[in-house]
């Protein structure tokens, strides 16, 4: 793994997750990585941001993990796919940062969000962080694709106040084309959260020509509406802010010619989700 993009001294703090970060954990031996994944005492973070108003309720501190097994064609942070692109950090280090903001987060009705990448790929690390944050009285949110949900026991899901779940596509073949993997685990996770009565926000990325099929959106919407625990749906317009990362990482990007959706297309998509009886923002 090349380290050419890494700053001499990498900082956990980032203005936003669009900073390209590569090879920051390259020096960690594979045996140490396996031990970290098994114990959860250490994890890999792309960065964290403070003051986010779009990653859960209120104002939030967001920790972005590295490692993701999906390959979404519209992913705007492909540098998060590789675990060792992140900075190795201990649970204690993250909590020390979080503690600085604890009182402000409460005043601003916010909390701590663990995002990625796919945070449940480092599920032991995730559970430890979330449990400790909860112990500090901080509201916890996980943004996930849900693929590894069965790694967490129901009791461990109790460390999460809110799940933000990405529903990428309804049709299984479309989903595989879009992400490389099946959507069944994601749907199973949504049903499991419904059974547990866990609040759920759905995130849907609207990509012209890729995810904007009305019947496909209607399938996802009907599924979400039938769960009974979906508090809101966020329709996120595709953008090209992450394209440079694909280029810099030497990855084949298939959406060079794709424009962000028009306002009319966004409204059409929102209408599909609303028609199922869901609250769309
Ligand atoms: S699940 Fe998220 S991080 Fe993983 S490839 Fe898809 S958009 Fe990127």
What is the element layout, followed by pairings?
Elements: H1 30-39, E1 42-52, E2 60-65, E3 87-90, H2 91-107, E4 111-115, H3 123-135, E5 139-144, H4 154-157, E6 162-166, H5 172-179, H6 184-196, E7 200-206, H7 214-227, E8 230-237, H8 243-249, H9 263-275
Parallel strand pairs: 2-4, 4-5, 5-6, 6-7, 7-8
Antiparallel strand pairs: 1-2, 1-3
Helix pairs in contact: 2-3, 7-9
Bound molecules: iron/sulfur cluster.
The site of iron/sulfur cluster has 12 residues, from loops.
Concise structural overview:
This protein has 281 residues and is of the alpha/beta class. It contains nine helices and eight strands. The longest helix has 17 residues, at 91-107.
Structure description:
- This protein is α/β, with parallel strands linked by helices.
- It is 35% helix and 19% strand.
- It is built from 9 helices and 8 strands.
- The protein has helices at residues 30-39, 91-107, 123-135, 154-157, 172-179, 184-196, 214-227, 243-249, 263-275, and strands at residues 42-52, 60-65, 87-90, 111-115, 139-144, 162-166, 200-206, 230-237.
- Strands 3-1-2-4-5-6-7-8 form an 8-stranded mixed β-sheet.
- Strand 5 (139-144), helix 4 (154-157) and strand 6 form a beta-alpha-beta unit.
- Helix 7 packs across helix 9 (263-275).
- The N and C termini lie far apart (40 Å).
- Residues 1-9 have low confidence and may be disordered.
- Bound molecules: iron/sulfur cluster.
- Iron/sulfur cluster (SF4) binds at residues 68, 70-72, 75, 77, 80, 116-118, 145, 179.
